[in-house]
What does this fold into?
Amino acid sequence: MNRNRAVGPERIHYYPQENKVVIERQKVTPSVFLVGLHLKHGTGHPGISANLWGVILDLVIVGMFFWVLSGIWMWLEIKPARFWGAVSGLAGVGLFLLFLFTI
It folds into this structure.
C-alpha cells in the first residue's frame, strides 16, 4: 500500500505468513516534496495541513488574477507606458510559448 505523507511518501508491505509489516520511507528531496504538494489538491482531505494547502493555493490564484488585471488596468491608464508595456507583454507571451513548446 502506498501512503502519501506531508513530508514524503511511504510504502507499506504486509506479509501475512510472517505476520510482519515493513514500512519503506522514501528519502525526501526537493523534487519529491514538490511532487507531493502537486498531488495534494482541493479541500476536504483529512488533516488540517491538506485543507490549509488548498486554501493557500486558492488565495495565491486570486492574488495572481488581481495582479494581472490591475497590471492591465494600469497599462491602459498610464499612456506613456503603453509602448514598453506592449513590448514587455509580447516578450512574456513569446517566452511562455517558447517554454511551452521546448520544455
